[in-house]
Automatic annotation (TrEMBL):
Primary localisation category: membrane
Family annotation (Pfam families): MFS_1
Keyword Translocase: no
Stretches assigned to the Major facilitator superfamily (MFS) profile domain: 1-378
GO cellular component: plasma membrane
Membrane topology recorded in Swiss-Prot or TrEMBL: Multi-pass membrane protein
Compartments where located: Cell membrane
One Gene Ontology MF term: transmembrane transporter activity
Transmembrane segments: 27-49, 56-77, 83-108, 145-169, 198-220, 232-254, 266-285, 291-312, 324-344, 356-376
Keywords: Cell membrane, Membrane, Transmembrane, Transmembrane helix, Transport
CDD domains, sorted: MFS_YfmO_like
Name used for this protein in its record: MFS transporter
Length: 394
């Protein structure tokens, strides 16, 4: 649901722009306000999920997500001043999205342990990516009817999701009584005081992957229509190519890393190396097929990084504070998504070469930060070298 909330709109952004006579910055705000609203409310719902339960937060969030989409759709189809109503609906959608994927990530940490947890988190990231693969295609298909049909699809999907969560998700019954807020906050401050340097570094790593991904999709969506006159389902299929590469890589990475934290760090560094090479090389390629082939290397990089970051963050704290810490990571991801379209719209106006070289420099810097600030220390084992990151379980 979190992924569909933005990705289904990517292929129809040019149609929104032309239908409502918007500027490039105004149309980018339909993505940005969703992500900012989610980023603001994610820590709040993260605390509530720690205080009460994951399920109690997820179901109302899905319902609010659907209500926001319905309002945006009615605003586009019926109300005057359509753009304002779309923005209001998107804000409500963002608040609802705050209680979806980040809380689901914390729930995985509650229900699974050890190598199985990493495997399921890999599936979680792959499902996130699968949503990104399918959503441009779904968005393009719905746009064949009318461009705002996308908004009316969201309430149906969110209602089905809420029913499935209600029926099939079973939380463990031995949940401890929640601590008082002051004690809870004190524990969180202790976590970030002791482990903040590496924790914020992996937050930055995840946010950077989402920022570059959505920025590139925004750029690609624009040039496919403006330069290549590619629209409709074909456009959705092309947008899905780099996402499919990322999904496949995420699934394989999650299934292989187990709880080997040294391997996670190495894969993060390798992933950012791939992203750096890819973005720097894109300066040299303007034809579509070579461009997509080189772009796929950055998708492999993101697919290596994201499952590792998920595992590192989920294992950083105990169950009683996992919701907040995972949700804060969700906020960083949403901020990355929010910043992508408006910043890329400025970079596109500035310089194509400058845009890709700036992305390469960003990926290089974040990769170096991971290399220098995320420390692991090894333990001797009989057969395999087991490692642990330099944090303690709180």
């Amino acid at each position: 649901m979190m992924t569909l909330g933005n990705s289904m709109l990517i292929p129809i952004l040019p149609k929104i722009k032309s239908s409502l006579n918007l500027t490039q910055m105004q149309v980018s705000l339909t993505i940005t306000v969703f992500s900012i609203a989610a980023a603001i409310f994610i820590p709040i719902v993260g605390y509530l999920s720690d205080r009460f339960s994951r399920k109690v937060v997820i179901i109302p969030s899905l319902i609010l997500f659907g209500i926001g989409a319905l309002l945006a759709g009615l605003g586009a189809a019926v109300f005057s001043n359509s753009y304002l109503w779309i923005i209001i609906g998107r804000i409500l959608q963002g608040i609802g999205a705050a209680g979806t994927a980040p809380i689901a990530m914390a729930l995985i940490g509650d229900l699974f342990k050890g190598g199985e947890q990493s495997r399921v988190l890999g599936i979680f990231e792959a499902s996130n990516g699968l949503g990104k693969v399918l959503s441009p295609i779904l968005g393009s298909l719905l746009a064949l009817v009318v461009w705002h049909a996308v908004f009316f699809a969201f309430p149906i999907i969110s209602l089905v999701s809420a029913i499935l969560v209600w029926i099939f998700i079973k939380e463990k019954s031995n949940r401890q009584a929640p601590p008082p807020f002051r004690k809870y906050a004190k524990g969180l401050l202790s976590v970030f005081k002791q482990e903040g340097r590496w924790l914020f570094t992996v937050y930055l790593a995840g946010g950077t992957c989402l920022f570059t991904l959505f920025g590139i999709l925004f750029y690609l969506s624009d040039i496919l229509e403006a330069k290549y006159n590619i629209d409709g389902v074909v456009k959705g299929l092309i947008l899905a190519i780099p996402l499919l590469v990322m999904v496949t890589t995420s699934y394989i990475t999650g299934s292989k890393i187990g709880k080997n934290l040294e391997k996670m760090k190495k894969l993060c560094v390798i992933g950012f190396s791939f992203m750096t090479i890819s973005y720097a090389s894109l300066v040299l390629f303007e034809k579509l097929v070579p461009f997509l082939l080189i772009l796929a290397l950055s998708s492999i990089g993101a697919g290596l990084v994201l499952p590792c970051v998920n595992s590192l963050i989920t294992g950083a704290v105990g169950k009683e504070r996992r919701g907040f810490v995972a949700s804060l990571y969700g906020s960083v991801r949403f901020i990355g998504v929010a910043l992508g379209p408006p910043i890329f719209s400025r970079l596109m106006d500035w310089s194509r070469t400058g845009m890709f070289l700036s992305l390469a420099a960003l990926a290089l810097i974040v990769g170096l930060l991971v290399l220098l600030l995320v420390h692991v220390k090894g333990k001797d084992g009989k057969k395999h070298k087991k490692t642990k990151i330099r944090y303690k379980y709180i």
